[in-house]
Amino acid sequence: MAVAVRVRAAAAGDVPAVLALWTRARSANASTPDTPEGLERLLADNPGALIVAERDGAIVGVVVAAWDGWRGNMYRLAVDPGHRRRGVARALVRAGEAHLAARGARRVTALVAHEEADAVGLWEAAGYVRDATIARFVRDL
User: Fold this and answer.
1) Tens digit of pLDDT per residue, the chain (141 long)?
2) Is residue 141 assigned to a domain?
3) Could you give the C-alpha distances from 25 to 98, 118, 128, in angstroms and in order?
4) Residue 45 lies in a domain
5) Under DSSP, is residue 17 helix (H, G, I), strand (E, B) or coil?
6) Does 137 reside within a domain?
7) Cα–Cα dist 53/57, whole Å
8) Which CATH number is 118's domain given?
């Protein structure tokens, strides 16, 4: 059953609620620490990139839709466990796509852990295709 949510760009006042949601819905694969300073930097450096879904005034979903001037990237998609399978994630993905398209993106990459079947299924249902030719390399700084 779909629920009515309002999807919008996050504001500085949303930082505590976003951090709390990420704590409740944290993926075991999320290895970067979540801090207020990090989110405040994202809001300042990439306006509109942090997108939230709210219902009855509470933030129930979030995604980062970042534009680097070349490509669009979506990551850290999370929906409160009590609001899953109701269209919240799909609404966030579509809002992220609209934000990135408005910035000039013609291609979007979604970062998804291979073993998270629900997340993989969501992205596939949203029309994304697994890239079997590109490997991702990471290094902590």
Assistant:
1) 566 899 999 999 999 999 999 998 877 667 778 899 999 999 999 999 999 999 999 999 999 999 988 889 999 999 999 899 899 999 999 999 999 999 999 999 998 888 888 888 899 999 999 988 888 888 778
2) no
3) 24, 13, 22
4) yes
5) helix
6) no
7) 9
8) 3.40.630.30
